[in-house]
Amino acid sequence: MAKFVVAGKANCPYYAKAELLADYLQTNLPNFRFHKITQQPDKWEQWLHDICETNGWEHRQSPIIWRELLDRGGKGQLLGGLNDFLEYAQRYYGITSMMLMEEMLDIAEENLQAHLEIVKEDEEIKSLIKPMQIWITSASVPICYHLIPLLANGEVFGMTTEISIHLLDTDQFKEILCGIVMEAEDMAFPLLRSISEHTKIDQAFIDADIIIVLDDVPLNLEVKSRENHIREVSEICQVYAPLIEKNAKSEVKVISSGKTFANLKATMLRTYGPSIRPENIIAIATSWESAAKAMLARKLNVNTAGQFCIPEGIIFSMPVRFQNGNWEVMTELEINETTQKVLGHLSHELVQEKLVALKEISEMHPYEAE
Q1: DSSP E strands: which ranges in 56-180?
Q2: Cis peptide before 63, with omega less than 30 degrees from 0?
Q3: Cα dist. 9→35, 66, 84, 109 in Å?
Q4: Of 144, 228, 157, 216, whose CA–CA distance to 192 is shortest?
Q5: In the predicted model, is pLDDT for residue 53 greater than 80?
Q6: Longest dimension (CA), the chain
Q7: For 285, which DSSP code?
């Protein structure tokens, strides 16, 4: 069976002639099938360039026609343009199109109007579906590349929830962001409505439903003191928090992650963004923290959870259960005295980090602190 693809600009008279000839052949020949691809005039050149580059073809006009090799697989075999198609139909089937230019122009106009109506209908349907807006900061980091498939495959937000992903980083990493966008588009996730890169900080978090903060401050105590690292974390959060309050949706959920200072980042975002609901700011335990907890649990022969006597005003990793879109701490778990001392030590460190961060900022902006 012969299966052809006929593609062209919606307003191209030569595409109209090729389309009608293909339709006639399909109607009258049992072993001829064709598929048509209609492109808007302003998108045709780029589409043609991409399809030719993918298949290693040379073609610069509308229409372009190729044969799908159903029996052998692999890429299609380029036939050419309208004249090549007319010659093929005459040689193999003895059929010739006698359509005049005036008819071709009329049909091309009908094709354009029909295509515009289809595009309009698609846009109206899409407008009724509001995708979840997800922003990822410091999106040039390697983990972001692996995070996108997890967000877009439907397992996180549901198999019917469409998402739009926004990648945020500085101009320095613009090329990396563009690469991530292109690769994500090539994956063609059915639930990924769009993915875009952003480098202008004042436009960050617009209409955000979910914000994933990946910013890391790598610890290098030989070069900088711990206080300097904490100050860097605090400065990042001092920039992000007001923008989240200003641009994001009122029920935005903020997830702090990374290799270092995940809890402190969450704490400072809560501090500098008082209008953000506290229960909507969470920290994902770092791999180092999880490994340390697991090791302590094995040594002490206890469960890895701790949840009692933790002071207010800090973000602390706790076991939680999710129900009806909310979470609650699992307070029924039991811990022994030794574990409680360890938790007290960890919470004390987090309190000290917060105090250092606030002190650094107050010294930098004394009048604002007052």
Answers
A1: 64-68, 77-80, 132-137, 163-168
A2: yes
A3: 15, 16, 17, 11
A4: 157
A5: yes
A6: 93
A7: P
